[in-house]
Amino acid sequence: MRTVALEEHFSVPALAMIPAEHLLGRGNPAFAQGAEIMKDGSKYLSELGASRIADMDSAGITVQVLSWSGPGADILPPDESVPWAREVNDHLAGFIGERPDRYAGFEHLPMTALQAAADELERCVRALGLKGAMVNGTTDGKFLDDPL
């Protein structure tokens, strides 16, 4: 039997620092705590090699569909969110390319720049072979159905 696990998180420590620092700059103590968790957790979430595969095997998971862990492009200003999301998605495609039998991916979209988000969705599906998108419930602290 094939078992597919959805929304399995990954991170790239150097990239996780950018939204973490952005949260710290907002000055809210809760954001500071979240930023520290992002920094610490990203080192574990970046392991996509033998250790993760062994954990998948022991849990009976055939394929993990990976998505970015935590806040990212959704809290960055548009001029920062677009290149940041592209880099995340390029890393994700690289990880999947190393083990396409075990990983698939949901791209991370720059939701603070809507046309760029649509363009990135198309690029990721057509050029990188990713399967869809993971969109967080809020963008820049507002729910997706906010009237703007």
Task: Write down the CATH class.
Answer: Alpha Beta
Number of domains: 1
Radius of gyration: 15 Å
Describe the largest sheet. 4 strands, parallel
Question: Helix/strand/pairing class, anyone?
Answer: alpha/beta
Number of E strands = 6
Secondary-structure element pattern, one letter each: EHHHEHEHEEE
Average of the residue pLDDT scores: 85
Separation of the first and last Cα atoms: 46 Å
Question: Any low-confidence stretches, pLDDT <50, length ≥5?
Answer: none
Helical residues, percent: 40-55%
- Taken as a percent bin, the fraction of beta residues is 15-25%
Per CATH, which architecture? Alpha-Beta Barrel
Could you name the CATH homologous superfamily? Answer: Metal-dependent hydrolases
CATH fold group = TIM Barrel
Discrete helix count: 5
What's the arrangement of strands in the largest beta sheet?
A: 1-2-3-4
Shape: globular
